[in-house]
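User: Please fill in residues for this 488-position structure.
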C-alpha cells in the first residue's frame, strides 16, 4: 500500500526534528502541520450551512471538518478490520493519512461558501477560474507559510525570486497531497462568461499546480494518463457526504427550518427535484446495478423518508385497534396525525432525539461502506450499499432544495457574492494591490505574469473568513469604516 516514494516532498530537505523523532511517521507530521496551520484555524469563521453570526451553536467549516475526519477514520478502521485484502497489516489503510485528508478537504472554501466560490470563479474566468478543491491543493502546496524551495543558500525564504514562485506551502508528502486530490482534471485556463452570465465552475486543479500533479503521479508510480484518486481520497469524499447529509439536517431541525413532517409534506416540485437528482447520482455511481435498483421516482423519495424516520411514523398497533373502533370515521386519522406530529416535533425540539437520530444514521452508513478493489490497490474506491446511498442522497438533496434554494438563503447568497466581487474589483484596480497585507503585496509585485498577479488577489480573498470579508468590505466602501489601526 505504501512505499518510500510516497514519503517524498517537493522540498526534500529534512528538518532536525525529523532526525530526532523517528517514531513519528511522515503522515503524522503532515497531520500536525495541517492542524497548526492558519488556513485550518480560519475554517472556524467560514459558514457551513447557517451564517456564523446567526448563532454559535450551528456547525461551521471547522467543526464540520472535524466530524468528517472522525467518520473517515472510522470507515478506514472498519475496512481494515473487515476487508480480506486490507486486513493484512502490510495492506492496512493509514488512518493518519485518511484523517489528514478529511481535515483538509474544505480548506479552499472562500467566504460565503459556494456563493463566494461562484463569485470568485466569475472574477477569475480569464485567469484560470476558481474552485474550492483546487484552492485546497493550492493552500497546502503553496500558500501556507511554512516552507520554500531552496533556490540558493542565502535566500531560503524568498517566496518569489526573479519572477519564479518558490513557495512550497506546508511541504506535505506526495501521498498526502494525492489523498486531497478529489478531481484529477485540469481546469481550463479561460472560460466564457459575458454580461450577467456566470462562468461554469469546473472541478479540478489550476494550471499553476499542473507540474505538481505530474510530480505526484511520478512519485506514486502511475502514468500521466492514469486518473489519480486514492482510496484515502475516496474515503474522505464519502465521509463528507455522510456528514453533510446528516449533521446539516440536524442543524436544520434545531433551527426550526425542517421537521420530518415538513419534509414529508414538502411541495411536489421539491420532491420531484430531489428524485431527479438522486436518479442522476445513481446512474453515475452505480452504472452496473440492475435497472430496478436505479429506478427512482417521487414515490421512492417518500419511501426513503419513511425508512429514515420510521420511528416518527410508527404507531402502536393496540392503540390503532382501539382508534378504529370509534364511531366517528375522521377520529383515527386526526389522532394518528397528532401522534406523528408530536413525534416529528420531538426530533426538532429535543437534543436527545436529534443526537440519537444522527448517530444511528451515521453508524449505519459507516458500516455500509464497501471497497471495489482495483488492480492498483491504493487506487481502490469505496462506496455505500446502494439502499443506504439512496437514503443519504435524499437527505442531502432535500437539505439543498429546501434550505439552500430558499428565499431567505438566497438573500444572504446575493449579498455574499456582491461583497466578494466588489472587493476583487477594488484590489484589481491600478493601485489596488496596496490594499492587501504586505506579504501579498510582495508576492503580487514580484510575480511578472498578469494572470498570476490576479491569482494572488484571488488567494487573498479566498482566505478570508465571512466576518473578515464583511469588515474589509466595510473599510473599503462603508460609511463607518473601521479604525486605521485595525490590522489587515
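Assistant: Residues filled in for all 488 positions:
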Amino acid at each position: 500500500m505504501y512505499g518510500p516514494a510516497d514519503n517524498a516532498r517537493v522540498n526534500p530537505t529534512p528538518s532536525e526534528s525529523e532526525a530526532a523523532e523517528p517514531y513519528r511517521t511522515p503522515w503524522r507530521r503532515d497531520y500536525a502541520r495541517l492542524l497548526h496551520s492558519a488556513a485550518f484555524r480560519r475554517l472556524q469563521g467560514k459558514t457551513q450551512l447557517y451564517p456564523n453570526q446567526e448563532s454559535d451553536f450551528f456547525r461551521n467549516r471547522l467543526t464540520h471538518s472535524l466530524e468528517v475526519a472522525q467518520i473517515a477514520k472510522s470507515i478506514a478502521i472498519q475496512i481494515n478490520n473487515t476487508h480480506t485484502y486490507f486486513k493484512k497489516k502490510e495492506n492496512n489503510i493509514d488512518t493518519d493519512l485518511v484523517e489528514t485528508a478529511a481535515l483538509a478537504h474544505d480548506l479552499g472554501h472562500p467566504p460565503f461558501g459556494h456563493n463566494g466560490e461562484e463569485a470568485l470563479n466569475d472574477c477569475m474566468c480569464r485567469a484560470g477560474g476558481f474552485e474550492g478543491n483546487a484552492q485546497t491543493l493550492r493552500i497546502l502546496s503553496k500558500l501556507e507559510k511554512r516552507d520554500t524551495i531552496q533556490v540558493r543558500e542565502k535566500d531560503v525564504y524568498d517566496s518569489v525570486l526573479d519572477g519564479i514562485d518558490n513557495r512550497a506551502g506546508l511541504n506535505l508528502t506526495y501521498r498526502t497531497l494525492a489523498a486531497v486530490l478529489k478531481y484529477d482534471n485540469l481546469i481550463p485556463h479561460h472560460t466564457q462568461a459575458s454580461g450577467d452570465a456566470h462562468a461554469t465552475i469546473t472541478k479540478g486543479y489550476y494550471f499553476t499546480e499542473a507540474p505538481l500533479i505530474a510530480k505526484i503521479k511520478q512519485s506514486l508510480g502511475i502514468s500521466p494518463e492514469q486518473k489519480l484518486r486514492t482510496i484515502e481520497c475516496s474515503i474522505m469524499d464519502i465521509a463528507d457526504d455522510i456528514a453533510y447529509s446528516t449533521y446539516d439536517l440536524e442543524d436544520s431541525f434545531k433551527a426550526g427550518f425542517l421537521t420530518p413532517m415538513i419534509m414529508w409534506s414538502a411541495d411536489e416540485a421539491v420532491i420531484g427535484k430531489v428524485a431527479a437528482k438522486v436518479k442522476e447520482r445513481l446512474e453515475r455511481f452505480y452504472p452496473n446495478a440492475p435497472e430496478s435498483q436505479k429506478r427512482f421516482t417521487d414515490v421512492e423519495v417518500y419511501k426513503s423518508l419513511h425508512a429514515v424516520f420510521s420511528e416518527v411514523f410508527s404507531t402502536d398497533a393496540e392503540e390503532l385497534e382501539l382508534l378504529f373502533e370509534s364511531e366517528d370515521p375522521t377520529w383515527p386519522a386526526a389522532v394518528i396525525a397528532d401522534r406523528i406530529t408530536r413525534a416529528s416535533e420531538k426530533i426538532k425540539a429535543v437534543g436527545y432525539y436529534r443526537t440519537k437520530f444522527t448517530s444511528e444514521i451515521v453508524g449505519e452508513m459507516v458500516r455500509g461502506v464497501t471497497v471495489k478493489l482495483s488492480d492498483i490497490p491504493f487506487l481502490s474506491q469505496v462506496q455505500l450499499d446502494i439502499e443506504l446511498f439512496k437514503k443519504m442522497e435524499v437527505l442531502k438533496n432535500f437539505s439543498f432544495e429546501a434550505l439552500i434554494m430558499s428565499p431567505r438563503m438566497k438573500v444572504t447568497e446575493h449579498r455574499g457574492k456582491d461583497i466578494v466581487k466588489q472587493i476583487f474589483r477594488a484590489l484589481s484596480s491600478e493601485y489596488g494591490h496596496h490594499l492587501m497585507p504586505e506579504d501579498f503585496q510582495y508576492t503580487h509585485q514580484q510575480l511578472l505574469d498578469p494572470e498570476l498577479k490576479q491569482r494572488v488577489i484571488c488567494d487573498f480573498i479566498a482566505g478570508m473568513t465571512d466576518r473578515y470579508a464583511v469588515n474589509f468590505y466595510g473599510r473599503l466602501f462603508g460609511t463607518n469604516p473601521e479604525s486605521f489601526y485595525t490590522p489587515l
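For context: The chain has a mean pLDDT of 88.
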